[in-house]
Amino acid sequence: MRRLLNRIPLMFFLCALHPLALPAGTTGKIAGQVIDAASKEALPGANIVIEGTMMGAVTDIDGHYVILNLPPGAYVVTAKMIGYTAMRMENVNVSIDLTTTLDFKLSSTVLNLGESITVLAERPMVVKDQTATTAVMGAENIQALPVTEIAEAIELQAGLIKDAGGGLHIRGGRSGEMSYWIDGIPVTDVYDGSSVVDVNKNMVQELQVVSGAFNAEYGQAMSGIVNIATKEGSNKWGGSLSTYFGDFLSNHDDIFMNIKDINPAAIRNIDASIQGPLKKDKLFVYLNSRAIHFDGYHYGQRRYTPGAVTMLAEGIPGAYLRQYMPEYLPLAREGRNDTYGIPYVLGSNVHADSLIVAQNLPQNFMGNADSLFAVLYQQYRHAHQGGRGDDAYVAMNWNRKYYAQGKLIYKLTPNFKIAYNLIYDDIHYQDYNRDYKYNPDGQAQQFRIGQTHIAQVTHTLSQRTFYTMGISYFSKEYRRHTYEDAHDARYVHPDLSIQNPFSFKS
Description:
Elements: H1 2-17, E1 28-36, E2 47-50, E3 56-58, E4 64-70, E5 73-80, E6 86-94, E7 99-101, E8 104-106, E9 116-120, E10 133-138, H2 139-144, H3 150-155, E11 160-162, E12 168-170, E13 178-182, E14 185-186, E15 204-212, E16 224-230, E17 238-246, E18 267-279, E19 283-294, E20 299-301, E21 309-313, H4 318-324, E22 342-346, H5 350-360, H6 369-383, E23 393-395, E24 399-413, E25 416-429, E26 445-462, E27 465-481
Parallel strand pairs: 1-7, 1-8, 6-9, 13-16
Antiparallel strand pairs: 1-4, 2-3, 2-5, 5-6, 10-15, 11-12, 13-14, 15-16, 17-18, 18-19, 19-24, 20-23, 21-22, 24-25, 25-26, 26-27
């Protein structure tokens, strides 16, 4: 009995830990050894300093050092010791979950006070502690690529393809089998397996795509991991502002309608960011915002409007066509002199409306044709008057996107950091559908709004130990409609929808 009571606190502790997810890696580390260049002996007590930060280490008795919990990026690292010339290593790259080995050989040669030796660090051909198939891209690599979205940079990685519907597949797996992480927090939408929020490429410090043998810390994934670390503010104020405009041009105007009508403002992008210290060495901020206006390259022509209800004119005798629908007479079948499956727009011909509506009423309605027909005919004849369009060209694969991010870092002490990150996206778009080529206003529009809040605490206990705790909240809203009001009179009644509502096959 006493043994059982002794185990109860441990059981409660384990139960409390059970629902918590271990945070994924968001930092890397630098490790190495400092030795005498002449004697090759270890130099204990040497100072290793990362310039521009409050981070560093002191070598142990064997000359070894470790600097943990470093955000990904490029650093300048300096090794100093009394009686030796300081050595400065530039372009030292740190990646998520990886160790950058950096050894120093200090010379005791007498130099003028303040002089140092500068060395450019090189990336090793083989990363010894990388056990998974991983593609790593830093902020500079992403900026150098001819991509406008972070998803496009992900698509360039080996073993990954994008299907016709926009889903990403790693090594033949399904699109919903990937897991998305931002700053060590999972942001995968459990509904469809996509990311809860889209990330602006300019706010990414490092992107990792893990396509096999990933560590246990990355759960709920079958095919691969997309791990993103976002940028942070520093002790120096800085910012950027960029914009571009453009349009698509092609000589295949037989395929791309209206492609030769050049509008320099059809594609518009503006991106701005600012970062710096609100309080030096204590409080840092990073802000980023981006707005995109994209008209695309697929256009339709407004020959009809959503008020035009398409019905099939079948079996109408030639005599009737000749008297009431002469414009349709050339479409009559030879030999039988009647129509067969000709699309007819309700409201185009007053004399033909009653006949064609009656033909397309469901069979079980025909018994009450006198009352039902009168109601349906009057309702839809009135609702869909003026169904002919103005023949204007309308963009059909357009989007309007807005991204925003704000990140605050507060360092209570050099070893205790609190971080808050807000990521927001608002996307309004339309995917191209050939069925609506001649009635572009009838195609549904799509709306997606997402936001993610991430709060984290990181505490470094020693040169070799630290822990991170985090909490997150995210939401995602999706809507798809042609008209916001579901009772809008312009919607086609199912009884009159012979094919997709508002669509005209082409």
